[in-house]
C-alpha cells in the first residue's frame, strides 16, 4: 500500500507551471563547466533503465538556473527544499533525482527548488580549492556547483514571502554528486564561496536541514575517512542519510560524516540498507532501500520541519 501511495503522490502532486530563474546576472563566478556545445539531454537508447524507465541526463550546463515548483495552497506547510540531482559532476539526472523529487516534496507540502548547477566540472579535480573566503572548504570540481547551490539558497530566501516560505525552514536534498553539494552547503553554512554580487547575497546561504541520499565525494577513496577539510560544529544543521551498503560509491560517505556529526552533537539519522546499489532516486522497486522516502518523511515530521512535530 505504501508503494501505491508514493506513486499516487508523484503522479498527482504537480499543481502549477514551474518558475524558472537564472542564478547569476551574468557569467557565474568560480570554475566554469567544461561544456561542449549547447545544453542537452545526453541519454542514449542503450542506457540502463531505472525501475523500468529511462532518465534525462542533462549535460553541458553553463547557465545555472533554479526551477521552482510550489505545492497546492491547501497542502503547503511553509517549508522548502532545494534539490540537487546527481550525475558524477558530469551530467544531471534531471528527472530521476530532480523534478520527480520535487513533485514528491510538493505532495508533502514543501516548496521544491531544483538546482540546475553547472556541469561537467569533474575535470577540475578533487583537490582542495582556494576560495575568496578560505574558511569555505570545497574541492575544485565541487566549487562551482557549491556556489550555484549557495546562490539558489539566498535567492529562495529573497522570494520567501512571495512563495509562502518560512526562511527558517529551508533545507537541501542531494543525490550522489548532488549529495556532496548538499553536504558542503550544510557544512560551510554561511561561509560563502564567492564575493557578494548584489542584495540577494545579503540573505543567508545556509540550509536549516539537509538530506543526503547515496552521497559521494566526501571521503578519501583509499582510507574511507572523511576528507580532512570537512568539519561539523554546533552551527551545522541536522542531517538525514540513506544509502545501500553495496553501493559502489561507498557507504563510508554516509558513515564517516555521520560520525563527524555525532562528535559535534549535531542531530542526525542514518539508514544503511544491505542491498540496493546506486542511482535509484525515489522510484520504487522490490529493494528495501527504495523505501527511504517514507523514512525521510517521518524524520522531517519528527524534527519539526513540516511545521508540526
Explain what this protein looks like in three dimensions:
The chain is α/β, with parallel strands linked by helices and 309 residues long. It has 7 helices and 11 strands. An 8-stranded mixed sheet has the order 1-4-7-5-8-9-10-11, sandwiched between helices. Strands 2-3-6 form a 3-stranded antiparallel sheet. Helix 5 (177-188) links the parallel strand 8 (170-175) and strand 9 (210-213). The longest helix is centred in the middle third of the chain and has 19 residues, at 140-158. The relative contact order is 0.14.
Distance between the termini: 24 Å
Which shape, going by the Cα principal axes? globular
Radius of gyration: 18 Å
Beta-strand share of residues: 15-25%
Percentage of residues assigned to helices: 25-40%
Estimated structural class: alpha/beta
Q: Average pLDDT value?
A: 93
How would you write the strand order of the largest sheet? 1-4-7-5-8-9-10-11
User: How many distinct helices?
Assistant: 7
Task: List the helices and strands in order.
Answer: HEEEEEEHEHHEHEEHEH
Write a brief caption for the model.
The chain is built from seven helices and eleven strands. It is of the alpha/beta class and 309 residues long.
Amino acid at each position: 500500500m505504501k508503494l501505491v501511495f508514493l506513486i499516487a503522490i508523484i503522479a498527482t502532486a504537480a499543481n502549477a507551471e514551474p518558475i524558472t530563474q537564472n542564478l547569476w546576472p551574468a557569467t557565474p563566478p568560480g570554475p566554469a563547466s567544461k561544456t561542449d556545445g549547447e545544453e542537452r539531454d545526453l541519454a542514449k537508447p542503450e542506457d540502463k533503465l531505472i525501475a523500468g524507465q529511462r532518465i534525462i541526463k542533462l549535460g553541458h550546463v553553463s547557465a545555472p538556473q533554479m526551477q521552482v515548483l510550489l505545492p497546492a495552497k491547501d497542502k503547503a506547510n511553509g517549508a522548502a527544499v532545494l534539490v540537487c540531482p546527481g550525475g558524477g559532476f558530469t551530467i544531471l539526472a534531471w528527472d530521476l533525482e530532480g523534478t520527480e523529487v520535487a513533485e514528491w516534496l510538493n505532495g508533502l507540502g514543501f516548496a521544491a527548488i531544483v538546482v540546475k548547477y553547472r556541469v561537467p566540472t569533474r575535470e577540475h579535480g578533487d583537490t582542495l580549492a582556494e576560495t575568496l573566503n578560505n574558511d569555505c572548504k570545497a574541492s575544485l570540481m565541487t566549487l562551482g556547483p557549491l556556489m550555484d547551490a549557495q546562490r539558489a539558497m539566498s535567492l529562495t530566501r529573497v522570494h520567501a514571502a512571495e512563495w509562502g516560505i518560512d526562511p527558517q525552514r529551508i533545507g537541501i536534498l542531494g543525490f550522489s554528486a548532488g549529495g556532496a553539494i548538499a553536504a558542503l552547503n550544510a557544512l560551510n553554512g554561511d561561509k560563502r564561496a564567492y564575493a557578494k554580487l548584489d542584495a540577494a547575497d545579503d540573505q543567508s546561504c545556509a540550509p536549516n536541514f539537509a538530506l543526503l541520499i547515496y552521497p559521494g565525494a566526501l571521503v578519501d577513496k583509499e582510507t574511507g575517512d572523511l576528507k580532512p577539510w570537512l568539519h561539523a560544529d554546533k552551527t551545522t544543521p541536522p542531517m538525514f542519510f540513506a544509502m545501500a551498503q553495496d553501493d559502489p560509491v561507498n557507504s563510508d560517505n554516509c558513515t564517516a560524516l555521520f560520525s563527524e556529526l555525532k562528535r559535534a552533537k549535531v542531530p542526525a539519522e542514518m539508514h544503511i540498507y544491505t542491498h540496493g546499489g546506486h542511482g535509484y532516486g525515489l522510484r520504487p522497486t522490490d529493494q528495501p532501500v527504495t523505501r527511504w522516502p517514507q523514512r525521510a518523511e517521518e524524520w522531517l515530521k519528527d524534527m519539526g520541519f513540516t511545521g508540526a512535530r
